[in-house]
Amino acid sequence: MKKILITRPMPQPVIDRASKLGNIVVRPKTTPLVQQEMISALQEYDIIVPTLRDCFSAEIFLQVNKPRCKLLANFGAGYNHIDVNAAKERGIMVTNTPGSVTDATADIAITLMLMTARRAGEGERLLRRGKWTGWHPTQLLGLHVGGKTVTIVGMGRIGKAIAHRCHFGFGMKINYASRSEKELPFPSKYFNNLQKALADADIVFLAVPGSTETRHLIDKNEFSSMQNHAILVNISRGDVIAESALIKALQEGEVGGAGLDVYEFEPEIPNALIQMENVTLFPHLGTASVEVRTEMGYMALDNIEQFMMGGKPNNIV
Question: What is the per-residue pLDDT for 181?
Fold first, then answer.
């Protein structure tokens, strides 16, 4: 019977199904694995179900000469916390859970856009402090998003879902920057120059995968290209933005606001961002619904079942 480690608590239906696959151990902590836990897990388990910030780096794999583990069935679409090449060198397969996160993450992107553009967070804080004195014509005037131009950086599954919502829901004009031009079911404009794409937008969405190639994709030069009323929304990975450059751009009025669900040094968030009224901050809510997290778990288990039957899992990375 295979010994399987699930590194964080999961929705109960996922645990119930997983228990039928082998000897299941569910780590009760909600924090990421520390170095020694990862080393021990590679030595003691046949299969590990890691997730965000369980950093299986090359250094970790190098410390385990002959790992017992043969599969890292990642819980999540993003897997930049796993050095896939180093895993393969140790004979360990890596899978992920794409697709299941698409709609939920796109919904959070739109929520961040609306809250930032319409100053909803600022308004709620005003109300909760007991400082609201009643309606007046110039109270908390924000940016009306209908008909505005968006630039989506990264036109994969999530980028397309965001574009669909923006076009059909708000009549917005769609620009996008990606590695190649796509066939899309709505009018759009493709840019192969990121800074030009940023300059043409009222709202910018970041929907690229986390990797060494996308780290600090948005830095001081990119902020200087944006319009000073533009809003930046990030639902990809925190280090896609150079956080210090974002803070400076916001402080100096180079951009109008930001909606963030992820952070460069998550879960640490700079106090400068916390203090800014024109910034909406979410605690990584992108996939935070019972249905989506359960589906993610089921997809990870599908990968495990396919692996255990000797087949090729659907979602090898």
Answer: 96
